Amino acid sequence: MIELRQLSKSYGSEKAVDGVSLDVPRGTITAIVGTSGSGKSTLLRLVNRLIVPDHGQVVIDGQDAARLPQADLRRRIGYVIQDNGLFPHWTAARNIGTVPRLLGWDAPRIASRVAELLELLQLQPQIASRYPHELSGGQAQRVGVARALAADPDVLLMDEPFGALDPVVRKRARQDLRALQQRIGTTILLVTHDMDEAIGLGDQIAVMRNGRIEQCDTPARILADPATPFVRDLVGEGQRAFRYLSIQTVASLRESGQIAGTALPPETPLSTALEQMLWTGCDMLPIAGGGVIRRDAILKAAQG
Ligand SMILES: Nc1ncnc2c1ncn2[C@@H]1O[C@H](COP(=O)(O)OP(=O)(O)OP(=O)(O)O)[C@@H](O)[C@H]1O
């Protein structure tokens, strides 16, 4: 668990981060969204003490981060930045081994950790000896994540980690991150300016504006009940209904009944079910395990 308590940081007269408090529960993903200049990156750097706050505290599992030795912080907090920040003259393996080397691990231990991480991130072993310019955008991004995970941190900070990827690779990278996080259970604090990314990845979303958090809530609540006009604008009034349907599953609107056809898995998003109904012209589809989903019920949920 990470607790941010009344964190503030000013540059001259400008408050980049202004009294931010936020709880990031262990093993969850918190997405920080907001417009450019709202203080997202500064907030992330306050967490790993790349920047020292003017006021406030970061508490990691009950310990004040300000009192932790640098080496401890490096081990416990991984950091991934846009464009992955790989060292261009180092191979992927050497990049991944950066933190373990700083921590003084011996060579065989580093090599075995690098091999383990390449496998975890689904990278071929031959990637190890390549230089960053010899990697695709998606591979470089995964090497960046592997490097951040090298010392098995409790917390992963990610600043626009998919910013440099094209939309197709980006979508895949997002899904991979979700799966990876579920597997290893790391606590992730992720900055993005992409609301779809925040909705798709976040267990909770913190919306920042002018250095402050305007709302911190689950994606469903941010969509259903934006706390301020700014949050409402950011979510995009016109897209709210569709986004809402994309995070609710057919299981949530299951009704009793029977109908022939290929059953939808219960975790199918309502948006997918609706698309299928509109495409095929039917008004009801079966759900695997029993019951049906009705078009009217989906449309009613979208309006609500
Ligand atoms: N080192 C610095 N010196 C002076 N001002 C800074 C510094 N770092 C950030 N700022 C200012 O603090 C504010 C917040 O910046 P920050 O980079 O945290 O915003 P952001 O939300 O991450 O923006 P973006 O999405 O564009 O990256 C901005 O107005 C920025 O100009």
UniProtKB/TrEMBL annotation:
GO terms for molecular function: ATP binding; ATP hydrolysis activity. PANTHER family: GLYCINE BETAINE UPTAKE SYSTEM ATP-BINDING PROTEIN YEHX, OSMOPROTECTANT IMPORT ATP-BINDING PROTEIN OSMV. This is ATP-binding cassette domain-containing protein. It holds the Pfam family ABC_tran. InterPro entries: AAA+_ATPase, ABC_transporter-like_ATP-bd, ABC_transporter-like_CS, P-loop_NTPase. Gene3D superfamilies: P-loop containing nucleotide triphosphate hydrolases. Belongs to the ABC transporter superfamily. Residues 2-235 form the ABC transporter domain. Keywords: ATP-binding, Nucleotide-binding, Transport. GO terms for biological process: quaternary ammonium group transport.
